[in-house]
Structure formats: C-alpha cells, structure tokens
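Problem statement: downstream parser choked on a complex file, so we are re-checking the raw output for the adenosine monophosphate run. The parser issue turned out to be on our end (a line-ending mismatch), but while we're here, posting the original submission so the record is complete.
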Amino acid sequence: MTAQHLSCEQLKTLVRTVPDFPQPGIQFRDITTLIGHHQGMAASVHHLATLAKAAGAKKIAGMEARGFIFGAAVAVQLGIGFVPVRKPGKLPINTIGIDYALEYGTDRLEMDPGAIEPGQNVVMVDDLIATGGTALASAELLRMAGAVVTQAIFVIDLPDLGGATRLRGAGITVDALMQFDGD
Ligand code: AMP
C-alpha cells in the first residue's frame, strides 16, 4: 500500500508549527494536520508499529490524550492490547497513580493496576517528547503495575529539551519519527 510509504521526512512537512502557543516562546508542534492527512496518519502508524514490533511489544501504553490516537492504532496494527495511561479521576475503578513535577506545579497519571500481566513487555507511545517528564512518570507507573518498560516511541522528539536523554538514564530506549530543533 503506497499510503504506508510516506517517509519520515515527508511526515515532518505535515506537522504544523504554531508559534507562541500555549504561551509566548513555545513553538507548538501540532499533529492534527498530520493525523488529518490519511496517508500521513497511515504512514505514521506504520513506522511506529515497525519500531514497536522490533522491540517485542506485548502491549502498547499510550498517554492521554494524543498518545491514545497513535498508541491505539499501533496496538491494532500489531494485534495486541492497548493500555491507556490517564489523567486523574477518569477511570471508573480503583487505580494506581503517580504524581510528577511540571515546570509550574504538579500533575498526576493513573491506570488500572490489573491492565498488565506481570513481566509483560510494554512499549510506550506518545505524540511528542519534550522534557520527558510525562514519559518518565508513565514508565514508573507501568513498572508499578508489573510491566517491563524498555522502549518508548514518539512521533516527535525535541532533543534540545533533553527528554530522550532522561529516559535513557531510566533504562528506556527512545525512538522518534522526526526531530525539531529548539523548544
Ligand atoms: P514532556 O513531559 O515535557 O515530555 O511533555 C510531553 C507532552 O507535552 C507531550 O505529550 C506533548 O503532547 C506536550 N508538549 C510539550 N511540548 C510541546 C510542543 N512544543 N508542541 C506540542 N506539544 C508539546
């Protein structure tokens, strides 16, 4: 299917950059233009799924909210289950959770403690890694639930913000389909 053969370089041209959102100085990398393009979405999922398969994924975890878009599609492509890592108060069951620091204040992620079998190889998928705070907290939470987490896959890496380096320090290999300089 030619739809799956757009290169990562071509995919990069489908990401819209919005300056000064949500605050002055931030270059917001908007993936809605990528996912709104059928071949762009299909190729993104294909490339992510290839990486997740090579990592031996037995389950995909996606972080709310944009990680759900790519993560769920990758899980379907690989024929494995999807685990949502959610913002607080969304799941209708007893959850496990983790608080983590943001630039200003803290945030929290929660998940179903029974979503993963002990020792299961879980690959994390999200749209973008910046400081890596969200991904690190997710990895810690997934590990609390019994997952083995050694691989995280992103559509976009902002290497100048150091997230990938931080994840590697926690024993997690990072792959991304594209990089943007700066923040
Ligand atoms: P972080 O925890 O710093 O790695 O931030 C990760 C999350 O923040 C990602 O899931 C993105 O959705 C969002 N994010 C951070 N910086 C940007 C940016 N420049 N453009 C778009 N989304 C961003």
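For whoever reads this later: Residues 46-179 form a domain with the Rossmann fold fold (CATH 3.40.50.2020).
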